[in-house]
């Protein structure tokens, strides 16, 4: 069983900054944990290579044993699929909900294997040229997926994808639901989420540290324990996700404290 610490939205304005990324690398180093950092290659329309501060931090991350993955291209919600309902239900996703309601057919028409391959290749090239690495890992922005994404990922030779998820209940908590029942995590579900070709799938569980407030710590910790123990019991990877800035922007030290507890 693997404990896979993953980080989304690296380089994305509002959810990442160089200062918070440096702080996150310090936190990981203090705890002896190596992570997969999902980087937005063209965040705010600016290629990674033109962000020397981020490039230096990511090269440091690589030297410390962390992995760099690709997180979309520009982090448009619909460049690789459509986000799941529990993501679209988040309060800040109002514009995305409206776009789906208004333009769903037009969005789907842009999700051909050929167009997705072009976006994948562009983002991958931006990461590899800036960092001098080979990118093998992908996660869709806001967990947006479609069947053609997985065909395109395999055609482009990616080793694994982590755009699917196990635990809707994490987003139920973020959406303010009081009575949350964890969804079972089983090997059968894990196997059912695998792509039939060479591409491996590592489904994430959820985000346990998104602006974590004091009043949500107990319920979130119970959910994290449920998910961790289920993954251990079933012999499948436990893949939580956090975001560069929000893990530190809840109340007090709640975000880092949640992961220190999980590590223990």
Structural features, described:
The protein contains ten helices and seven strands. By secondary structure, it is an alpha/beta fold. The strands form two sheets. Strands 3-2-1-7 form a four-stranded parallel beta sheet. It has a three-stranded parallel beta sheet with strand order 4-5-6, with no helix packed on it. α1 packs parallel to α2 (52-63) and α5 crosses α6 (147-155). The longest helix is centred in the middle third of the chain and has 19 residues, at 113-131. The protein is globular, with a radius of gyration of 17 Å. It starts with a strand and ends with a helix. The mean pLDDT is 96.
Mean pLDDT: 96
The structure class reads alpha/beta
**Fraction in beta strands:** 5-15%
Order of SSEs: EHEHEHHHEHEHHEHEH
Low-confidence stretches: none
Oligomer: single chain
How much helix is in the residues?
40-55%
Tally of alpha and pi helices: 10
* Biggest sheet details: 4 strands, parallel
The CA-CA distance between the termini, in Å, is: 16 Å
Kindly report the spatial arrangement of strands forming the biggest sheet: 3-2-1-7
- Strand tally: 7
Radius of gyration: 17 Å
The gross shape turns out to be globular
């Amino acid at each position: 069983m693997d404990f896979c610490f993953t980080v989304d939205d690296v380089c994305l304005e509002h959810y990442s900054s160089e200062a918070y990324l440096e702080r996150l690398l310090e936190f990981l180093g203090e705890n002896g944990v190596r992570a997969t950092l999902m980087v937005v290659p063209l965040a705010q329309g600016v290629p990674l290579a033109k962000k020397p501060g981020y490039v230096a931090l990511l090269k440091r991350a690589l030297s410390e044993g962390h992995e760099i993955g690709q997180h979309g291209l520009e982090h448009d919600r619909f460049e690789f699929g459509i986000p799941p309902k529990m993501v679209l239900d988040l309060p800040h996703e109002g514009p995305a909900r409206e776009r789906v309601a208004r333009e769903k057919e037009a969005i789907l028409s842009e999700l051909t294997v050929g167009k997705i391959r072009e976006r994948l290749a562009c983002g991958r090239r931006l990461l590899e040229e800036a960092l001098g690495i080979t990118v093998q890992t992908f996660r869709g922005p806001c967990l947006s997926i479609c069947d053609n994404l997985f065909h395109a990922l395999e055609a482009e030779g990616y080793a694994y994808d982590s755009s699917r998820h196990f635990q809707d209940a994490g987003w139920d908590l973020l959406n303010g639901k009081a009575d949350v029942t964890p969804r079972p995590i089983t090997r059968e579900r894990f196997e059912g989420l695998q792509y039939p070709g060479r591409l491996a799938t590592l489904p994430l569980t959820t985000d346990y540290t998104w602006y974590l407030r004091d009043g949500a710590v107990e319920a979130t910790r119970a959910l994290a324990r449920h998910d961790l123990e289920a993954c251990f019991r079933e012999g499948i990877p436990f893949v939580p996700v956090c975001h560069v800035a929000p893990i530190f922007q809840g109340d007090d030290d709640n975000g880092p404290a949640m992961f220190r507890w999980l590590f223990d």
